Q: What sequence folds into this?
């Protein structure tokens, strides 16, 4: 079963908007078991919309379209579909009432342009949109079942899940099941090598998606029925986890910060930070998670040396003799933050993010880390590469990984 | 002149990667004066690649393609183009030498799969790629001039600018000039209303791109020659700036943090932070800018009340009587941070980011700000809406705006 996606809108063809709708729909269709052969965009041009629909409807079994269902004059999709199918537009009373009620809630009346949103090609099945004024619809175009959604991501996604998935899922033969593991700390080539043979052994497909500095491993099993597919995907995933070890930090959409905060929560532990080169990035990653305040007490961004001394009690002489980017200063920062915040653990990060400030002895990309708790302090040193943004992002992950290692293994071999 | 973009790669049709290349190229083509009619993706399938190239080459004057120039067996673009044009592949000696030298720098030898990257359809013009092993090329397909680039964004962008733009720019008749202003603090509808009449008066096109919480205003002028276009775009931009006032914080790709750091630098002023609900986000935005350490001394993320007292010297009694989210505490945080960091100015942010923690009196989205300097302290209070992420992001911008207001206007009407 091949599928295609067609997004309409001049804002897309002019590059004013990144087309995240297309990516989201492509991923959903792939997860459902479809092979997506085309992801196209056209501008708000009647002729180009009609030609694209005709072509995709002839080549694929399913076509998903977004955009062009709004109230303005450049919203042309419904009219183009009716023209293509040579059927009249028919006004739907229930949709009209829904639009009227929704506008009334915002204290607005019904304009003729809004009433137009209740018009559909004769014979179309309507896709309700509880969240907005643009209902969708689906019809057959050529050999394809063609679905039409508004371009607003929140509305489109809900309509796809609520109305399209129940129609689409039965079209795919057999069962399929996909699991996603999120990893950090191994290069993509190493992940590949470690997982060699898994595809053949379990009859699954492994997919990789690098999203710096993470790698996501997708395990997709197809089988005669859903239960078999699930079982096979789960068996393969267990082996993937074993082979990748601590590099796997979560499943599905879990972030590194979420997985660490959950682990801290289980242990009843709290965390504080002393950041230098990451400049608040680690704190920002942690506090992005709702409820993080239960576990994360706070941090300092001690960029200037004087700040390291004034806020964290780092000995000015230690900075003078070892430099701000050094193991002794990293240790003192972590211990100082722990004393001030009264947290179970404290993490420090001090390094040279670049592009300037490197020396032959301490090059751009050199970062020192330390994690202090009641049992002692572990330190780690890394030399990483890339842009300023990449150095900072990778350093943030390495710091959080050190917290996890100390929490799980103490200050033994795994921590230092 | 209409143009099309074709991106190849199964990672795109499976939704494993957001297609930012397409958006970038669409925006560049639009800026050059082309009308982009189609932005298509196909998977790594010979037949679909060939059909897409044939179709787009028949419909447009320019086609830009990305992807499929790599060394692996699923990199099919070059071969497809040669097949389509019925010409043989010819190995280019200079490209081969470039690839060999680049691999040698990484201590690697030349594999046959890499040598393949020096093959081009006979008669093609080669596009050098100083940054990678995949040179590009351009040929005529149908009525279109078709350009082929690798999918790696950094390489593709440089090759587009260095080789394609000099070929493409002269194809567009007349002159055109575009300026971009970045704005924060006005709703899109207000920006629209304030700029009404500008398009007609100066014969320019105004484009808007909302990228939360910013709005970018693009001023595009087309004229008989480049000088006229430039003059008209600049005249219109002056009026746009006047009408939007302080909401305009920069031009082109300038970030809010960059514009504020530049202003602080001009005044010889330094900044420190006391963040609560933004959790390090403001520090992260500032330190993302290379060289920020000259102006930004550091900050605290005082999430827990005890941290506000221990690190910033905020009176525990003030927190008890007014609550952590209050003007007195915001003022004490800013003044405390300024004393500890010894900075010219200090900004504090304390609020309720949600989704939990709100009360009828202090709802989610309530944020207090203060900026302290030697002359005094200004405070501001805002109630904003949206998700946790949106509350935090908008709060970060509002905080930076308050710093700018105090720096420019002192603690007068503009600052409070």
A:
């Amino acid at each position: 079963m091949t599928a295609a996606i067609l997004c309409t809108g001049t804002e897309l063809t002019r590059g004013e908007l990144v087309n995240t709708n297309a990516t989201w729909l492509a991923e959903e269709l792939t997860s459902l078991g479809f092979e997506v052969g085309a992801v196209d965009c056209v501008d708000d041009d009647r002729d180009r919309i009609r030609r694209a629909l005709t072509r995709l409807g002839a080549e694929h079994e399913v076509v998903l379209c977004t955009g062009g269902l709004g109230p303005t004059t450049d919203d042309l999709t419904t009219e183009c579909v009716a023209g293509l199918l040579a059927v009249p537009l028919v006004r739907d009373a229930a949709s009209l009432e829904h639009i009227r009620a929704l506008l009334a809630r915002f204290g607005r009346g019904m304009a003729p342009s809004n009433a137009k949103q209740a018009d559909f090609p004769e014979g179309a099945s309507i896709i309700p949109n509880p969240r907005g004024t643009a209902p969708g619809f689906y019809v057959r175009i050529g050999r394809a079942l063609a679905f039409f959604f508004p371009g607003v991501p929140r509305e489109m996604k809900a309509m796809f899940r609520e109305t399209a998935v129940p129609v689409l899922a039965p079209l795919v033969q057999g069962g399929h099941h996909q699991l996603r593991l999120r990893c950090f700390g191994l290069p993509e080539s190493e992940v590949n090598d470690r997982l060699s043979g898994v595809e053949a052994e379990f009859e699954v497909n492994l997919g990789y998606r690098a999203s710096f500095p993470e790698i996501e491993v997708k395990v997709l099993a197809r089988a005669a029925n859903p239960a078999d597919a699930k079982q096979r995907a789960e068996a393969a995933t267990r082996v993937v986890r074993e082979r990748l070890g601590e590099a796997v930090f979560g499943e599905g959409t879990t972030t590194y910060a979420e997985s660490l905060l959950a682990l801290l929560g289980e242990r009843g532990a709290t965390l504080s930070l002393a950041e230098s080169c990451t400049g608040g990035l680690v704190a920002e990653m942690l506090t992005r998670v709702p409820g993080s305040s239960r576990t994360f007490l706070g941090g300092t961004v001690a960029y200037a040396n004087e700040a390291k001394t004034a806020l964290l009690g780092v000995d000015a002489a230690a900075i003078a003799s070892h430099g701000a980017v050094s193991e002794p200063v990293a240790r003192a920062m972590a211990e100082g933050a722990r004393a001030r915040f009264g947290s179970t653990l404290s993490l420090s990060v001090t390094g040279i993010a670049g592009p300037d400030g490197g020396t032959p002895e301490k090059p751009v990309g050199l970062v020192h880390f330390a994690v202090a708790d009641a049992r002692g302090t572990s330190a780690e040193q890394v030399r990483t590469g890339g842009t300023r943004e990449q150095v900072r992002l990778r350093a943030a992950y390495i710091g959080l990984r050190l917290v996890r290692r100390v929490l799980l293994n103490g200050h033994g071999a795994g921590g230092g």
